[in-house]
Structures are given as C-alpha cells and as structure tokens.
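ok so for the tutorial part 2 we go from a plain amino acid sequence to predicted structure tokens. step 1 is just haveing the sequence, like this:
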Amino acid sequence: MLGLVENHSLPRTAAFFDLDKTVIAKSSTLTFSKSFYQGGLINRRAVLRTAYAQFVFLAGGADHDQMERMREYLSALCRGWNVQQVKEIVAETLHDLIDPIIYDEAASLIEEHHTAGRDVVIVSTSGAEVVEPIGELLGADRVVATRMVVGDDGCFTGEVEYYAYGPTKAAAIKELADSEGYDLDRCHAYSDSATDLPMLETVGYPHAVNPDRALRREALAREWPILDFHRPVRLKERRQGPSRPALVAAAAVGAAAATAGLVWFVSRRRTSRARFTLI
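step 2 — the prediction. this is what the tokens look like for a chain of 279 residues:
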C-alpha cells in the first residue's frame, strides 16, 4: 500500500508512469501496426518489420542505439499519414488491442495513487496520437508523449517536434512540477528501462518495473524497489463488481440484520422502561 491520503496543505504530488512494459505488456505504437495496415497506412513489409521490432523490444534487447534507429524508422514510416485517420484507427481499435494487455498491478497502483490524492502522469516515447487515448483509458490526469510535426494538409511531415526520451522525459517532468506545483521529492516514478534513469532520478520515490538488465543493476545498487508486473487484465473485468444476484442477496442480508437490530433495540428499550416503572 502507498500510505495515507496526501495532506493537501502540502505541495501537490504525482506518480509518473512509463507506458510500454510498465503499464502495458507491449509497445503501444507497434501494437497498432496491423490496424494501420488494414487502414491502408502501411504495407505488409512494414507490418513484418514492426513485428520484428516488437520482438526485439519485448526481449529487452532494445538499447539506446536501437531505440534511435526505431525512432528514425517510425518517423519515416508515418510521413504522409493523415493525422485524423490515425486518431480514428486508434479510437476504433483501442479497447480490442490495449485493454487486454494492461497490467493488473499497474492499474491497481494507478488507483492507489489517485486514492492517495496524487495526480497520475503517463510519460511515453510513443506518439501523442496513441498515448493520449491510452492515458484517458487508464484514467491518467496528464500525458507526456512524443509529438510529430503536422503539415498544413493535416498529415505528418516525418519530422519530430518533441521526442519524449531519456533526459527530455526528466525535463518534461520538471516543467510539469513547476507549472502544477508538484514536490518532486515526494513524487513517485515507474519504468522498465535504463533509458529512463533520468526520469527516475528526478523523483524521491523511483521504482523499477520489470527492469531490463541495466536498470535492474542500477536499482539494486541504489536500493530502489523492484516490482514484477505479469498479470495483464481487461479493465472492464477489474471494474466489474459482484453480480446482481449477489448484490440482491447482500442487500437482503443487510436489511434482515438491520431489522433484527431494530427489533432488539425496541425490545430492550421496552424492558428497561418496565424495570424503571417497577422500581
């Protein structure tokens, strides 16, 4: 558990979550490759290449240089894509593709941070068109994500306006802290990758989640908590309460208990009055 609810007379706090392999079990951007193919945005060869990139990513073998090559490849790939079409594809397939791969442990942590009075911020290298709907799905308060340049024709130019990666994530968090009044020494952060060390070092409570080898080594050396998230679950299933028959039964039991209590109270009161009269 994360402790008591924040004292709101103190500066505000937040929990910053990396997205891929921290909150969800795959790469958010690469997960949509099949949908982009079906929507005519990419060809079969590109689907195969993104599938390979997904494999490298999941295997934990994507180091800094490989991530840079992946960024260059995806930037070139999306050149000329209509932004509105991308948003529509993401909206149409979001629940089918992303909902089943959300870690139950991450969803619980997000709920606990909200209960404690902290904002939840998703900080991801993936594009804003993908991350923002996922953030909304998760109930995040804010999102920091990579932004691509959009031309006058409403299409991506292939240029990157802001790349949320490594030190730039840390810089974005500091800017948010300044604008929102977060006390970073009392904030939390979660990531799976050593490339997010600058982000983790920015807060007072860093956590390594499913860490790659380099981050695990750093976390052990610095005595940071290491968390193991391994239970993907649909949010709908997590939010489903007891079935209606169970609720009806519980209500009946509660009503019966209340009635019995009332009868006992009235009976006891009458007995007390009778004893008082006799005296």
